[in-house]
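P.,

For your records, the input lines for the assembly:
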Amino acid sequence: MDTLLRLEDLTMHYKTKAGWVQAIDGVSFSLDRGQSLGLVGESGCGKTSIAMSIMRLLPYNAELVKGRILMDGHDLYALSDEEVRQLRWKEVAMIFQAAMNSLNPVYSVGNQIIEAIVTHEPETSEEEARDRAESLFELVGIPKERMDHYPHEYSGGMKQRAVIAMALACNPRLIIADEPTTALDVIVQDKILREIEDIRRKINMSMIYISHDVSVIAEVSDIVGVMYAGKLLELGPCCDVFKRPKNPYTYSLMRAYPSILGEKHDLATIPGEPPNLLDPPSGCRFHPRCDWATKECREVEPPWREIAEGHYLACHNPIKTQQVKSCMQQETAKGGEGIGASFGN
Amino acid sequence: MRRYVVGRLGQVILTLLIYITLVYFLLQAMPGDITMMYLSNPKIPQAAREELRTQLGLDQSLFMQYISYMKNFFKGELGVSFSQYPKPVWDILMERLPRTFVLFLTANVLSFYIGFVLGKVIAWRRGKAIDYAATVVGITFWTAFYPLLALVVIWIFAYNLKWLPLNQFIDPRLWSTAPFTANQVFGNMVYGAAIVGVGIFCIFYYLLRGLKPSRRSHVQAWSLTAALIAVALVFAQRKGILIYIWDITRHMILPVLTLTLINFAGTMLLMRDSMLETVQEDYVMAARAKGLPDRVVRDRYAARTALLPTVTSLVLSLASSMSGGMVTETMFSWPGLGQILFTAALSNDYPLATGALAFTGIFLLIAHFVADILYAVLDPRITYTGQSGV
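Structure tokens returned:
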């Protein structure tokens, strides 16, 4: 498989009155064509900043300190604004965090999709674009008669589908879905996730899912990246990461989510809160909240290393499988159940 | 929608009734009456004064006067002016109305357009030099004392530079031999401007409405507009009124300039605020992510939704300007509605003053009505069918 997107040591800071906010620090990963990547982490840990960096839609106070984003081998930040504008939606489309609000209230939904098509493909006539928009509507399951309706006449789920249809309008090679289903109820959420996955497999498109919801990420991602405080702590194939988590943060994050299957267990919250990125902790950024933290964790930044084929980790004291097992046994004894059951696929 | 319109029209008529009543009694509450003006004139004997009062109906009780006024008002009779006896009020108002209308419509549309465009640009480039410059200049004019600004403008352009006439709305030397009356030319100007305006609207509507950027031909639209205006001018020349139109236009420039200077900042700041909110909206970010050109994102996404609240200010300023901006018309000796209202009030000419104010009220009510309809046209979320939009 060939690499579509590669982030190399991406470091991006926001300038604020209080100082530099280190929103993304040394993030590297690569994504193959047709692969889906899930980025998971607490709110404010830099997931959306990564998405915006890839779209090159960062606010004016953001500064790329170092690193590169390569799309198909081309450095995105070496292109001119106009070139980037033409790349957007054609190469990388996005499903926004608040899909509900990402439709313009004063134009019909169909027109907003047609507009995207004719902007990027000047040779397409408006009528052809309309036909394509109609088939997109069918693909995401909205009756095509609803094309001329305005966003406020849609239900939440329909808006979400319309936004997905819009993202698919120019056949992009990569779609970034930033919390695509957070605003929806669980049933619709599941349905829409499945639909996105179906479409993605059908047209061999790459996808980056961004969510704070571990269960969503576990359901749809081929590879998973766990982010904390602007850094990637663990990255690897979905089943590896969630079945045998190596980073204590990954493990804590998983324990903080309830499981529908299996028996009840107490949710283990992670004490404390994510650090202030104006002045992140020394060493490993997670150490103040980590049960396994040692002196080394407090002082030395853990290196980003490959511990198994495609499984990367930044941690001085990776969890041993036995440790996880013993924890799981404790939980089982308490009437809980294992991690494998909740996230196995 | 139709039920809404009918119901709303009923409201308009009821409000008008209350408004006229209030205006009527307020004007009557002023001390004295028209005959008092002759008080210091010893040549008019008391008996003649009484005779005059009887003739004008001022000897009847206030209530009876009110009843007969209202009866006539809804028959379209506004009575006879006291101070310009025996000219009917209607004739005086109809003579004055077009002048006021042309002047203030031009000034308002111009200041709204300038305010809208500037507000849009400075909101898009907030924090840049142009933002500060436009805001400072705009607020300076906006807070300026209006009569003083008018005097300064007259002093610079009419007195010092002598580019433009000092006051009045026509040059008597030119018009003494004119085969038309000023009002005929005014009438033609209004009709002509209306036709050209509708034409320009159609041109832009049909040429620029496409979703496809390549299909939106600005050059074509502007050249067609220029051609339309040229045709209108040639037509006026052929009819021999071009020179008179030019004379009126020359006289209009200073008041329009002053009104625009003082008013544009209102729309500009409103637009700026409104747009600073819409640029934060997710759909503006989404439009950018869609790879739409910057201009399209600004105009079709951010500015289009930001326009909605500013329309209110346009309509209301249009309506209130029909009262004729007494100050403007006095400063520039513009013989319009505001000026006549002023002199009528001073000379206790109740029928004329009431009539002038009634027209102001009617315009204001119609403007509100039009604004409500316009909202529904501009914002698909607003419907008047009884179901709520959002």
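Two observations worth noting. Chain A touches chain B through 35 residues (CB under 8 Å). The mean pLDDT of chain A is 84.

Regards
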